[in-house]
């Protein structure tokens, strides 16, 4: 499964490179038209490189996190076994993107599948987290964290990954609100992967 996921990312990179340059009506290669599409493809390629660069990173199992009541835990206190889907976001990320992600998850996963999800969020004010949790009716375990210590956080976008039993991260994914079908497909892939881990 990891191999096919890596192949998917590599093919996406190659496709993005191919599509960023195209012939104009005279058959010459054009760099001036479709500037918006080129910019989007550039950003997507940058995301793919960040995903590849962070795949396999190992998190500190003693990292301090806080629940919504401000009780202190370590990552290993909370996530004791591998095969958990982690949603990582910050209050500074695009709010519409975050709302879209949770809406997609709520509509696509059943109750049992949702039990695989944990949220690691960054908030300066605990009350803001409580308000967000209440407004969005989140039933997932949610914890405040300052940083995971990976470069992907610098993109300032919410992302998802699988946390394995050795606290390595795999199956990194950046959801886009314009393409919820990609998020649904991703969730199907990682749920299948997690199911094989627990056999």
TrEMBL record:
Record protein name field: Thioredoxin domain-containing protein
Organism in which the protein naturally occurs: Phocaeicola massiliensis B84634 = Timone 84634 = DSM 17679 = JCM 13223
